[in-house]
Amino acid sequence: MQEIIKPPVEVRYQKELEALASTDSAEERQKRPENWKMSPKAVRTFILGSEKPIEYEGSTYLIQKKYFGNDALVERCIVTLAGNRGLMLVGEPGTAKTMLSELLSAAISGNSKNTIQGTAGTTEDMIKYSWNYALLLAKGPTREALVPSPLYVGMEKGILTRFEEITRTPAEIQDSLISVLSDKVLNIPELGDDGFLFARPGFNVIGTANTRDKGVNEMSSALKRRFNFETVMPVNKVSLEKQIIMNEVNMLARESHVDMKADEDVAELLATTYHELREGVSSYGHRIDKPNSVMSTAEAVSVYYQTMLTGYYYGDGHLDVECLVQNLVGAISKEDKDDLEKVKGYFNTVIRDKGSKEGGIWKQYYEARKWLK
Amino acid sequence: METILRSEEMAEIARICLIPVRHHSPACAFHVKKVIGEWKPDAVLVEGPDNANAMIPVMVHGDTRAPFAIYYAYHDKAGKISGQQEHYKCYYPFLDYSPELVALREAHRNMTCVSFIDLSYGDILYASHVNCREGQERSGNPESMETYNDDYLLTRNAYITRLCEKTGMRSFEEFWEKYFELNGMDEDSDVWFSHLNTYCALARENTPETELEMEGCLARERHMAARIVQKVQGGCRRVLVVTGGFHTPGLRELLSAEKWQETAAYAKSIGQYVPHEDESVYLMPYTMEAADALNGYASGMPYTGFYQKIWDGIASQVQKPYEEAVLDMIVSSGKELRKQEGYLSTYDEICAWQMAQGLCSLRGKPQPGAYELQDAVLSSYVKGEYNIASDMPVRILRQLMTGTGSGALCTQADVPPIVLDFEKQCSQFGIRTNTTLEKEVVFSIFSSKKHRQMSMFFHRLVFLKTPFAVRVKGPDLQRRVDRNLVREVWKYKYHAQVYAALIDVSVYGATVEDAVMGIVEEQLGRDIGADSAALLLTQVFEMGMESQLDKVYGAVQDAILQDADFYSVADALKSLLMMEELGVLYESRMEFGALLRQGVRKLLTLLSGIARIRDEKLDESMEALKLLYRITGRKDYETEREDFFEALERMQGDTQIHAGLNGCIHGILYGGGRESAHEVGMVCKGYLTGTREQLLQTAVFFRGLFFAARDLLLIEKELLGMMDSFLGEVSEDEFMELLPQLRMAFAYFTPSETDKIAGRAAAFHQKRREDIMEREEILPEWFSYGKRLDAYVWDRMSRAYPEG
User: Fold this and answer.
1) Residue extents of the structural domains in chain B
2) Which chain B positions have a beta carbon within 8 Å of A46's beta carbon?
3) Residues 81-140 of A with CB under 8 A from B
4) Nearest one of B736, B721, B717, B630 to B678, comparing CA atoms
5) Cα–Cα distances in Å, from A239 out to A68, A271, A286, A353, B167?
6) Distance from the B142 Cα atom to the nearest Cα atom in chain A, whole angstroms
7) Which are the contacts of B410, defined by CB distance < 8 A and separation ≥ 6?
8) How far, in Å, CA of B138 to CA of B126, rounded?
9) For A207, phi and psi rounded to 5 degrees?
10) Distance (Å) of CA B578 to CA A73, B261, B447
11) In A, which residues are within 8 Å of B344 by CB distance?
12) Which end of chain B is more exposed for a tag (fewer CB within 10 A), N or C?
């Protein structure tokens, strides 16, 4: 029985990471930026996979592709992190920004846990440092009494600091990063002459930010200038989206000890629905009203997984299309009531035609439209 | 050389060197130049239609500047391709770094005999279409083959898709740049060509034979091989052949010992598929923009401006031409961006350069190339989410990478007859073509015969899409506006694109008039609606192409008969009516009476179908009804008028009729004496006393009614009372919603009429006209306070948003 629900990337892929780091050639080792666990090429291989297996300590490892989408974007991210600017991943919710930032941190610094989780209540203390007040009263302002923030730790150890959901933090709090990012030094006036923390090589910041959610703050231009921006787009191929859904659902099932495998046809059904509703046009050329809700792959995974769990616990291990439609309703009608009407329209045109043309599961899917209410 | 074919049997007599190339590849051009210099052939044969051989002296002339293109045109008079007598045209663009052009230039420099060896354009079309007809699908569309280059054969097949996946490249172009361009100059020509040969052989192996047949490849290769054999038999000892890499394996096979005799036999009787007198070939100046493969015209490598820089770098022996070009473009796009948006810092440029270098090292490339450049700019210049509002840096870079250069031809270039005709007409009219300065002219088209002729000439050039003259003022018959104007103001300017555009249409005829006729006829051949046919008739009318009027007239007649779209026929009718009215002024002999009547009859049959229109169609429908009312009011249209009123009455019977249209119909029937003011009032009352939704429809009903008969409101007093009670019924929110419709309804009245109506409306509420027209006094201090407040807000706003 595993002890934690979701182990961090560096734990889950520990062997792969070790294997990749050890198989860096001498030339690659030389090219490793200081304090990086592996060369930029190996980081790329870790995230984008390789067809060539690697030998390490008597075992063979085939590095699987972990991030599907834009390979060039991953390469740009790696190069950015080796440079002087921070990396800001922006995009719609559910486009695997966090996953990418975890993969990058685990591969580069061997640690994806050094994270600030941005909320509307994040304060400057949480970003820089705070104090253990008992020690502060007993010993005065010393390093011992200081409680370092993830940013502090990153600078001190020369590792990456992840800043999740940076735009949920108020703009003036976000701006406390500006001087740290440009000067690479943190001032701690309480410590007097020793109050300077100079960042060690290897330190950098990966931010992630949503662009479509409610309750996000605009970033100041000064902060924007200190980051290279990468826009993570939703997956644009149905086949790829289907693959992601299957991979993720199977992994979730494995982790929860649910003895079921994702069904390819259902995954395709869901991938097609999400893809078409997101793009506003069907594979047959129908024009579709786009829902306002976020139609992300992550949402599709959760709809599928929920349906799978229902099937596992209540349906004798059988996956029910009607249940899938019910879960779809739940996922779509979160924000806007009109969205449900749009999905109904989608079923009454596109799915109807697909059902009559392709039959099988598409027909069942169309027949389950009664749950759209 | 290992890379070349040497037919063993022929070794004693001659050596043939087959050089595979990719169009617009600087590395390839570099090696072609090197090989020609080292190998010293006594004949250079280049892939290109052999009926363009006469162009070679102009192409290699010192005054000719790339980019230019060979323009091929074929008029299929014999109907050999699709059975229709269609016009076909295509371009074969050349840039300074096109290996073919380098081969031609080098051969010329070394005084080596040089010629093109491919089938002519018409024959290629025939060969590919004949093979398609035998069971395979391919569009017979004349525009489906607009470029001569066939590089796409090298870039699309399952093998290449897999290759890109395996090498982690996002596209074939990136693959090509990495493996053939970036270190291309440092490699030995033998090695470089052997890599290309291997690649081409694999690409060919993975292309099905049927596709080769369909594309006409096999016929072309047979022809090229035969031309090579002819050259050898003609006594050449060292023959260098430059062809697209895709054809090299095919040619090698045809020239092999086993096939040599067969090819030689074919060479004795090279035939032709289409009559050569129906083909024409010209050189024309071209632009970088048109030559860039990404613009959808030509194939070959994209980013013409970027690779031109690489080629210039190679020519001036720069150590790392790619690095230089990437850095140069990072800086120049940054400069341009600062000019347009003003936010970019030098540090951004430094970061972009670091990004390009970092990516280059990560991707294992010897120098950063076009893709690292694009990634660098995307990553370092775009601030915030990448979308249409923030993609300016990428767009600027894209423009720079395409380049803006255009070519020029030397004076010895063959001038096509249409250009001669254009120049002749210009000189007759005193229009200057020897300067590129813009000139403005004013034509009194109705009082001066010469001016009308000049105007017709300009209209014809506009019709031919020649960027020579632009009308800035004057009656616009196509849009039916400014018809009251009696003068036309034109601006004209001569530049190289005019020449290119004229050559472009030379396929349709040898004179400007002929080309216009050719295009008109082609358009008539298509399946067009009544509105498009009438528009074409208007254009012909405007251009004064009297000889064409009859034909187009017939086409409009057919189109009206076949068109079942009410709005399309109504639009045609408007154009016809306008031409009939202007016929005398434009001195046209054409009679439009019969056509007009036919249009009216057709509209009457379609009328009943428009009762339940959508809101957005209301204006168009009311205009059409008014037009019918106007035409059927003529003396000899009594029968049509009766039918018109009957059709309207039938429409009224539809309970679902659009309220606005219903109002308009009642207005028309009232105007035609078929309905009394009282009856109209009753209908209005019906809406007012109906259900809530019907009540709300009253506003749009009024709009329709006043559009057709606004005098009703002034005559029928009861109507105003009804309107007053209607406004009393609706809530404030509903009123706000209806306000746009009400505003539109009252827009049909003149100011004095509105004034009068307001006076009467005031009386309903025991007020005088003055009570509602005059407002309470405003104290001077209030006014000055308001003014100060206004100025303060304005000042703060303009400080906060200096850009406005």
Assistant:
1) 8-295, 304-402, 417-508, 658-804
2) none
3) 82-85, 90-91
4) B717
5) 11, 8, 20, 20, 21
6) 26
7) B58, B61, B62, B63, B64
8) 13
9) -100, 150
10) 59, 71, 20
11) none
12) C
Q: Over the stretch A302-361, which tens digit does the pLDDT of each residue have?
A: 999 999 998 888 877 788 888 888 888 888 877 677 788 888 888 888 888 888 888 888
**From chain B, which residues contact A within 8 Å (Cβ)?**
166, 168, 170, 343, 345, 347-348, 351, 354-355, 358-359, 361-364, 371, 375, 378-380, 382-387
B148 touches B91 (CB < 8 A): yes
Which residues, at least 6 apart from B233, have a Cβ–Cβ distance to it below 8 Å? B264, B267
Query: Which residue among A72, A85, A231 sits closest to B170, beta carbon to beta carbon?
Result: A72
Q: Could you tell me which residues are beta bridge partners of residue A287?
A: A281
Backbone angles phi, psi at B800, to 5 degrees: -70, -35
In our burial notation (b when 16+ CB lie closer than 10 A, e otherwise), range A191-220 reads beeeeebebeebbbbbbbbbbeeeebbebe
Summarised one tens digit per residue, pLDDT across range A106-127 is 999 999 999 999 998 999 999 9
A-chain residues within 8 Å CB-CB of B337?
A: none
Within 8 A of A221 by CB-CB distance, chain B residues are 343, 383
Distance CA(A255)–CA(B757), nearest Å, equals: 79
pLDDT 10s digits, B435-459: 767 889 999 988 888 999 999 999 9
User: Which residues from A are below 8 Å from B383, CB to CB?
Assistant: 221, 224-225, 229
Q: What percent of chain B has pLDDT over 70?
A: 93
- DSSP assignment of B76-95: -TT--SSSS--EEEEEEEE-
- Judging contacts by C-beta atoms under 8 Å, the chain B residues touching residue A48 are 168
**Site from B355, B357, B363 to mutate, A interface, most A CB atoms within 10 angstroms:** B355
Q: Which helix (H) or strand (E) holds A246?
A: helix A238-255
Distance CA A181, CA A223 (A): 9
Handedness of CA B716, B717, B720, B725 (dihedral sign): negative
Does B497 score more than 80 pLDDT? no
Is A78's Cβ below 8 Å from some Cβ in B? Answer: yes
Min Cα–Cα distance to chain B from A223, Å: 10
Whether the predicted pLDDT of A60 surpasses 80: yes
Residues of B in contact with A31 (CB under 8 A): 361
Name which of B361, B363, B383 is nearest A224 (Cβ-Cβ).
B383
Single out the residue of A245, A211, A208 nearest to residue A92, CA to CA. A211
Residues of A in contact with B345 (CB under 8 A): 225
Distance CA B87, CA B73 (A): 7
Confidence of residue B6 (pLDDT cuts 50, 70, 90): very low
Prediction ipTM score: 0.84
For chain B, what is the mean pLDDT? Answer: 83
pLDDT at B143: 43
Whether A65 has its CB under 8 Å from any CB of chain B: the answer is no
Side chain identity at residue B378, one-letter code: L
- In the Cβ-directed half-sphere of B608, how many Cα atoms lie within 13 Å? 8
Q: Rounded to the nearest 10 degrees, how much is the dihedral formed by the CA atoms of B767, B773, B777, B782?
A: 130
Tell me the residue type at B429.
Answer: F
Q: Tell me the pLDDT band of B294, cut-offs 50, 70 and 90.
A: low
Closest CA to A235 of A289, A287, A162, A299: A299
Whether the Cβ atoms of residue B263 and residue B41 lie closer than 8 Å to each other: no
Cα–Cα dist B622/B661, whole Å: 7
- For A27, the closest chain B residue by CA position comes to B361
CA-closest candidate to residue A83, choices A103, A101, A108, A65: A108
From A31, A44, A80, residue closest to B379, measured CB to CB: A80
